[in-house]
Design goal:
By secondary structure, the protein is mainly β. It has one domain: Nuclear Transport Factor 2, Chain: A (Roll). 10% of the residues lie in helices and 43% in strands. The chain has one helix and six strands; from the N terminus they run βββαβββ.
């Protein structure tokens, strides 16, 4: 899926349509000592490996995210594309 480097989009902070710079979404690393990680480690303690996994149906592709930054107010918002794609997003130069 190819997206232009700059797109016209609505900025909810400026309350008008402005040009936005597009960047690919990068996932943040999970913290090792966060509450959720500690709770999970406490739950699987004593088991070899992990607790019985719940089997979920496999989804075809994934919904892609991009970060769009307003060129006027410099605020960054996340945009999720509704369709599922198997290929990663490419930013066209």
């Amino acid at each position: 899926m190819k997206i232009n480097k700059e797109i016209m989009s609505y900025c909810k902070f400026c309350r008008k349509h402005t040009s936005h710079n597009v960047k690919t979404y990068t996932k943040k690393a999970q913290r090792g000592l966060s509450l959720g990680t500690r709770r999970h480690n406490r739950a699987i303690k004593g088991y070899v490996g992990s607790i019985e996994p719940k089997i979920h149906p496999k989804k075809l592709g994934r919904k892609q995210k991009v970060m769009v930054a307003c060129s006027q107010c410099k605020k960054i918002t996340e945009r999720v594309f509704g369709m599922r794609t198997k290929k990663k997003i490419e930013i066209a130069r």
